[in-house]
Each structure stands twice: as structure tokens, then as C-alpha cells.
Amino acid sequence: MLRHQIAILQRNAKKPRLKRSDRVIFVLISKFLKSWRQALSIVKPDTVIRWHRKGFRIFWRWKSTHGISGRKPIDPAIRKLIHDMSLANHLWGAPRIHGELLKLGINVSQATVRRYMVRHRKPPSQTWKTFLENHVNELVAIDFFVVPTVTFRMLYVFIVLSHSRRNIIHFNVTQSPTAAWTGQQIIEAFPWDTAPKYLIRDNDRIYGYEFNKRLDSIGIKPVRTAFKSPCQNAYCERVIGTLRRDCTDHVIIFNEKHLKRVLRQYIEGYYNVSRTHLSLDKDWPEPRVIETPEMGKIVGIPILGGLHHRYSRNVA
């Protein structure tokens, strides 16, 4: 009679909504009653088994997360440090970074380091900035520029620029440059064993056979820029513009001797030792020690008749 009444309720009513306590009771009864499958009418036996498995997962999840357990979370600052190290050092793996952290007093596992490292898609490689900084001491650039005299003659100025500190190593002036004369300037710029490995130049015909012969004799490899591409010798072009704007455009040149004296005063007295550069973090090509107020008053030293000034503290 009870089974028939339940069947009538199932036909007339919608699916019954069971509470969590009802499901727990069904699961407990199924553990103690052998013929529990035959007594079910509202739910199916597979449903009771699914409830039991779900309760098993909930129980062990609660037990594993209850109270203090597992490792402590790693400090966000350490995670950021691992991330920054892996970005800045493309050739470092997890063991190398882990060893560096141990030397810094940070005790983490190597697996943790591997977890928070940056995954590089391509094989490890240094950046172009790192590559250029490693070779900048072996790079120099040369170029010519012309300066008109008071009698409308053209004088040719040859400059040799170092890429490492942006300082002008050597310069000279001539009325008619030749390959032999230009090669001799390279010898004078790099005496003994001071020659760099690479020299950047354009495709001017002045750099002929005699010039290349001089380069080979001291072990310098010339690097020619592309035709009509002054941007490939950008540092030298920038220096020429600076020499024009800061010096030769403000002076009327009488002759070759006068131009040499003016350029020497500007380069040796101002450009290499007083003019700050953005690429050097506003330092001079020849590094200068910061002068504190205790060293005395600030004195301005005029250069080129007051066209520029060099400022330093006068030690009493």
C-alpha cells in the first residue's frame, strides 16, 4: 500500500526536492541496510552512490585544508625578485638563480624558483643592449666635415670618436685630404697597442688603398656604412652637428692654424672635460668627481672668449 501511494505521488507531483540532511540519511542507511536498493522509490541507487562519492571528496577537502598545513606562501617580493632575475639574465637557469638567492640570504627551494621563473619561448640569448655594451669599447668612428674661412676657402676637419665615452680622441685640419694623410691620422690617434678592433666609416673615396693599408698594419677592421645612410654612423654625425652649433658657427675662421686652435680649445677645454651627455647619465666623457659645497665657491672659467663656461668649485 505504501509503495502504491508513493507511485501515485510520483505521477502527480514534480521531482521532489531533497535537503542535504535527507541525502546524508540515505547514504547512512545504505551502509547498514543490505537490501537498500529494493527499498528505493524516490531516487535511484546510482544517485545515492554519487552522493556518497561527493561526500567523500567534501570530507577530505575539509580535512586537508583545516587548520595550518602545507608550506607557507612565498613572499611577493621574492617572487618579483625571481621574475626580475630571470628577465635580466637570459642565460641563467633555475639552479643559477637559486644559488644567487641563497647567497642573498633567501632560503627557497629550487622547485619554487623554477615555478616563478619567466618561461622564454626562444632559446636563451643576450639582448642587443648587452651585446653592444660588451663591444662598445672596441668601436670608433671617423668622419670629415668642412668649415669655410673668411676668404671662402674650405678646410676639412677629420675627427675620431670613441663610442664608449663619446669623447673625441683625435682631430686634425687640412686643405686637401688624401688617403695617406688620413691613414697617418689613424696612426697618431692610436699609438702603440691602443688600436680598437672595429672602425666605422662611410664610403668616401678618401679612404683608399693607403688608408686601408694603415688599418691592416695596426689590426683595425673597417666597417663601412651603407650608401646614403648617415644614420648608421649616428654618433659621429651627432658630434659634427655639436661642433657646428657650439663652436664653428659662432667663429669666423681665418686659416688652418686658427681653426686648429679654436677646435683644440673647444674639444680639450670643454667638450671632453666639461660638456655633459645624456647617454652618459649627464656625465662628462672624462668622468668627473662630484664637488660638494664644502669644497668652496663656484667659479666659472670662460672658454673661447666666454662662448662657453666650465664651472667648478674653487678650493680656498
Report the average pLDDT across residues.
Answer: 85
Q: What's the number of helices?
A: 11
As for the CATH topology of the largest domain, it is Nucleotidyltransferase, domain 5
Shape: elongated
Amino-to-carboxy terminus distance: 119 Å
**Into which percent range does the helicity of residues fall?**
40-55%
CATH class of the largest domain: Alpha Beta
CATH superfamily of the largest domain: Ribonuclease H-like superfamily/Ribonuclease H
Our estimate of the beta-strand percent is 15-25%
Low-confidence stretches: none
Describe it for me?
The chain is α/β, with parallel strands linked by helices and 316 residues long. It folds into 3 domains: 2-64, no CATH class; 76-119; 136-274, Ribonuclease H-like superfamily/Ribonuclease H (Nucleotidyltransferase, domain 5), CATH 3.30.420. The chain has helices spanning 2-12, 20-32, 45-65, 76-88, 94-103, 110-116, 128-135, 179-189, 209-218, 234-246, 256-271; strands at residues 139-148, 154-162, 168-174, 198-201, 221-224, 297-303, 308-314. The chain has a 5-stranded mixed β-sheet with strand order 3-2-1-4-5, sandwiched between helices. Strand 1 and strand 2 (154-162) form a beta hairpin. The longest helix has 21 residues, at 45-65. The protein starts with a helix and ends with a strand. The mean pLDDT is 85.
